[in-house]
Amino acid sequence: MPAIVLLGAQWGDEGKGKVTDLLGERVDYVVRYSGGNNAGHTVITPDGQKYALHLMPSGALSPSAMIVIGNGVVVDPKVLLEEIDGLAERGVDVSRLRISGDAHLIMPHHRALDRVVERYLGTRRIGTTGRGIGPAYGDKVARMGIRLQDLLDPGILRKKLELALREKNQLLFKIYNRKAIDVDETVEEYLRYAERLKPYIAETRVMLWDALDRGETVLLEGAQATMLDMDHGTYPFVTSSNPTAGGACVGAGIPPTAITKVIAVSKAYTTRVGAGPFPTELFDDNGQHLRKVGHEYGTTTGRERRCGWFDAVVARYACRLNGVTDLVITKLDVLTGMPKVPICVGYDINGERFDDMPMTQTDFHHATPIYEELDGWWEDISKARTEDELPENARRYIARIEELCGTRVSIVGVGPGREENVLRHPLLP
Question: Which residue numbers belong to the known binding site for Mg(2+)?
Answer without folding.
Answer: 13, 40
